[in-house]
């Protein structure tokens, strides 16, 4: 399985990465101010979060939203 886009709006993560680089957007909300994606099912949000963090644009595993929040730094 290859996951490489927001399916609701057909925006590839590569295109979103380009917009993020051009605009300096570093969150989903900031990126959505410049391009439409992730407003329906929001299943792409964990992938876009990871793309913004790592630059990865093609995924071969399912990432769920709570996995991304668990991947952040532990709070003490």
Structure description:
This protein has 76 residues and is mainly α. The chain has one domain. The chain is 42% helix and 5% strand. It has a two-stranded antiparallel ribbon with strand order 1-2. Strand 1 (5-6) and strand 2 (11-12) form a beta hairpin. The radius of gyration is 12 Å and the shape is globular.
List keywords for this structure.
about 80 residues; mainly alpha; two-stranded antiparallel sheet; about 5% strand; disordered C terminus
* Oligomer designation: single chain
Strand order of the largest sheet: 1-2
Counting structural domains, the number is 1
Instruction: Give the overall shape.
Output: globular
Determine the strand fraction and express it as a percent band. 5-15%
Helix content estimate: 40-55%
Number of DSSP strand runs: 2
Count of helical stretches: 4
Tell me the major beta sheet. Answer: 2 strands, antiparallel
Determine the N-to-C terminus distance.
37 Å
| Alpha-beta content class | mainly alpha
Order of helices and strands: EEHHHH
Q: Uncertain regions: pLDDT < 50 for 5+ in a row?
A: 69-76
């Amino acid at each position: 399985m290859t996951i490489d886009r927001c399916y609701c709006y057909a925006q590839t993560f590569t295109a979103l990465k380009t917009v993020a680089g051009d605009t300096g957007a570093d969150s989903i909300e900031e990126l959505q101010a410049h391009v439409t994606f992730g407003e329906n099912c929001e299943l792409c949000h964990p992938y876009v979060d990871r793309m913004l963090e790592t630059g990865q644009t093609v995924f071969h595993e399912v990432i769920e939203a709570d996995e991304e929040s668990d991947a952040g730094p532990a709070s003490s």
